[in-house]
Design a protein that fits this description.
Layout: H1 5-9, E1 12-16, H2 23-36, E2 40-43, H3 48-55, E3 61-66, H4 75-87, E4 92-96, H5 99-104, H6 107-122, E5 127-131, H7 139-151, E6 156-158, H8 170-178, E7 185-189, H9 195-203, E8 208-211, H10 214-226
Parallel strand pairs: 1-2, 1-8, 2-3, 3-4, 4-5, 5-6, 6-7, 7-8
Length: 227
């Protein structure tokens, strides 16, 4: 095998975004991420401050969503969300692009929207993942978004919210990796439920995945490495 446990664990953003999760579920989820030493916990914004408290002193980052899940918030609101998230302890922000503006071909708006949030985050040394929501887009849209994301300094481009009509696909990750410069990472999210899926995305160049089945994936990883 060409990986160690830490290689796989540090690919996973443990997703705690399902609206039916209770406070107790969110608390437990943060503890799971700590136990398995994931890359981050991507949590609903209202619980972010508590999440950051739980993760303090660990190598697991606190992350949250901006403009989630449809991207239609005004730019000013997205920036305000980002500032509040950083104040609450956020290290990485997963921002949804304005899907309507992408489909309308209003690339100037899309660029300004992304740049405003990325600039606000980078001013405080935080990182941004730009979510495309590929299920609604054609390849030409995805390619243009890769180009614009790179131009405005995105740290990652990301396939999906997990709340669209479909999630990450191998073809999309391959396309996004091919059309992004080396310094822009790729995150796959939506429907990744087992280790084999994660490894397939890793082989195509994804450096992160969003997953809620983190415990199952990493227990399987441990079993395989023992064998």
């Amino acid at each position: 095998m060409d990986y160690k446990y830490e290689d796989i664990a540090k690919m996973i953003d443990h997703a705690l975004l399902t609206p039916s999760l209770t406070d107790q579920d969110l608390e437990y989820g943060c503890r799971v991420a700590l136990e398995y030493n994931c890359a981050s916990v991507c949590i609903m914004p209202y619980y972010l401050k508590r999440c950051a408290e739980i993760l303090q002193g660990s190598t697991v980052e606190a992350s949250t969503t901006i403009g989630f899940p449809h991207g239609g918030h005004t730019t000013a609101i997205k920036v305000a969300e980002a500032v509040r998230a950083i104040d609450d302890g956020c290290q990485e922000l997963d921002m949804v692009t304005n899907i309507s503006k992408v489909l309308s071909g209003d690339w100037d708006y899309v660029r300004q929207d992304l740049k405003a949030v990325i600039d606000a985050a980078h001013a405080r040394n935080k990182k941004v993942k730009v979510i495309f929501e590929n299920c609604y887009l054609k390849d030409a849209h995805k390619i243009r978004l890769c180009e614009i994301s790179a131009e405005v300094g995105a740290d990652w481009v990301k396939t999906s919210t997990g709340f669209g009509t479909s999630g990450a696909t191998l073809d999309d990750v391959k396309l996004m990796r091919a059309h992004s410069p080396v310094h822009v990472q790729v995150k796959a999210a939506g429907g990744i439920r087992d280790l084999d899926q994660l490894l397939a995305f890793r082989a195509l160049g994804a450096s992160r995945v969003g997953a809620s089945k983190t415990k199952d994936i990493l227990e399987d990883c441990r079993r395989r490495l023992i064998k």
